[in-house]
Amino acid sequence: MNLFRSEEHIVRWLGGREPGATISAAKLAELAYAWWDDRIAPDWRPHTREQNQAILERLGLTGEFWQLP
Amino acid sequence: MDDSDLELRRRTYAFFVEHGRAPAAAELGESDEVLAGWRRLHEEHAVVLSPATDELRMLNPFSAVPTAYRVRTGGRWWYGNCAWDAFGICAALHADGRVETSCPDCGEPLVVEVRDERVDDESLLFHVLVPAARWWDDIVFT
Q1: How does pLDDT run across B38-67, given as a tens digit for each residue?
Q2: Does A46 contact B108 at a Cβ distance shorter than 8 Å?
């Protein structure tokens, strides 16, 4: 789960491996705030799979690649 | 996850945020009890232990060991386990900050400022190699 300069850099880094998924840094920030915002809250409870999947879907991260187990 | 494990997790995170480092088991109570609790939390993916030592490796989004993702926020340096976690540190601390890393391909330094939940360089790209269904198969690799 890395940050890259551009698509060209991702392709070169993959070196022929199957690509995963790529999103913008702006989308990543949205994802990070939705996912981690409550992590040190004193009343934190574990997210359910459904809660986490809903976060991904709300941000448009859908399809088989983003399906949690 | 029962209430006592949730409380141990809360105290573990509170120690990390206060001191900027992971606690040793003995700093939170009777060592064997704390370690047993951490192992249960590890199984629930609520913390990550180093397999060889039972020391805390990750308190996601924080890393207890240095990584390629350095974060400046709240007057202190932190490490994220990956790019997602690096921004997650600003989110968890509810603070603006700066993420410093380098492009894994070319090694060029990348610096991103986070202000009001937004990044100042939206041209950068985030790549996830492992599908979500397998993230926890090997969380350190992921």
Answers
A1: 999 999 999 999 988 889 999 999 999 999
A2: no
Inform me whether the C-beta atom of residue A64 falls under 8 Å from chain B C-beta atoms.
yes
* Domain ranges across chain A: 24-69
Map out the domains of chain B as residue ranges.
Answer: 3-57, 69-133
ipTM: 0.94
Give the contacts of B63 (CB within 8 A, at least 6 positions apart): B57, B69, B78, B79, B80, B81, B85
- C-alpha closest to that of B64 among B43, B81, B41: B81
Fold of B69-133: Bactericidal permeability-increasing protein; domain 1 (3.15.10)
Specify the pLDDT at position B122.
Answer: 84
pTM above 0.80, yes or no: yes
